[in-house]
Amino acid sequence: LLMAYDPAKRLARLNIQLQASLVGVEMLYALLDRKPAIEEAEDAVPLKVGAGRVRLRNIRFRYGRKAPALDGLELIAEGGKVTALVGPSGAGKSTVFALIERFYDPDHGNVLIDGQNLRGVTFESLRRNIAYVAQDAFLFEGTVAENIRMGRLDATEEEIRAAAKAANAHAFIMAMPRGYETELGENGATLSGGERQRIAIARAMLRGAPILLLDEPTSALDAEAEAAVGEALARLMKGRTTIVIAHRLATVRHADMIHVIEGGKVVESGSHGELREAGGLYSRLYDLQFRD
Ligand code: ATP
After folding, report:
1. Structure pTM?
2. 89 Cα–ligand 1 center, Å
3. Cβ pair 257, 81 in contact under 8 A
4. Pairing between strand 54-61 and 108-113?
5. pLDDT tens for residues 244-279?
6. 76: burial class by Cβ within 10 Å (0-12, 13-18, 19+)?
7. Which of 69, 209, 260, 269 has the smallest C-beta neighbourhood within 10 Å, fewest atoms?
8. C-alpha distances in angstroms, 14 versus 10, 99, 130, 251, 285?
9. Protein residue with least CA distance to atom 16, ligand 1
10. Which subcellular locations apply to this protein (predicted)?
11. Is 84 helix (H, G, I), strand (E, B) or coil?
12. How far apart are CA 69 and CA 162, in angstroms?
């Protein structure tokens, strides 16, 4: 089932969801009979995150023998700021995330966090410092509390509730028949898109990582759900370095920096106002994608 649809991408997503769990990434790959694309350096040291500045320097990367997905990409996400990535489908936005999480190493160039090359850091420290919120939260069969605990396995009940409250999820959880002990998944309760997102945000809250990768859902929520999710996200992003693949108008408008990616490189950078004024690709995408 996993291998049926875009295996590497699916695997990458699953991998992110499992990163906090006891099941190591290596074991996951072994289960799926695949070798990890990269291995930890023998002299790897823990990543030390200060400001949380992420830099991709002169990146070239291709999947197997395909044409390069990234080619000459330069990108900086300043510590504590919100950096939005926009661009047409297939431009390379998800691949930027995959390299920051080191599911792959670039063929050329380096990814640096606070000046440390990811090739030299331990996987464990990298995963501890990065949280990923996917477009569509992966929920597994188990209780609501267990689903949130995926963010950090040693979290207490108290911490799980605090994370759910911060993620605007506590009220709808308490409204379910068995609250935090309600079973989710195949034969359990089903959640709306906005509720799933808030569970994913609660997980990320619980992890407390200083660097946040956020893949915004493309599908629109109703106004009420949008407000609840937006507020939860704003709380999550506070004080962290956020890199967001942006699909919402509010996100691009409020981003500290927008990088427009096309054909595997950054073709324009600036604030929403600056890029609108420049009248380039961003302006055309904006009219197509973000404007109602
Ligand atoms: P979208 O907005 O549609 O998600 P994107 O900007 O995130 O697109 P990527 O998913 O990074 O773009 O894809 C960049 C290029 O790399 C595309 O040509 C895509 O087909 C290819 N690609 C992405 N993931 C894989 C993969 N796992 N294996 C092979 N090729 C891939």
Report:
1. 0.86
2. 8
3. yes
4. antiparallel
5. 999 888 889 999 999 999 999 999 999 999 999 999
6. middle
7. 269
8. 6, 16, 15, 25, 30
9. 69
10. Cell membrane
11. strand
12. 40
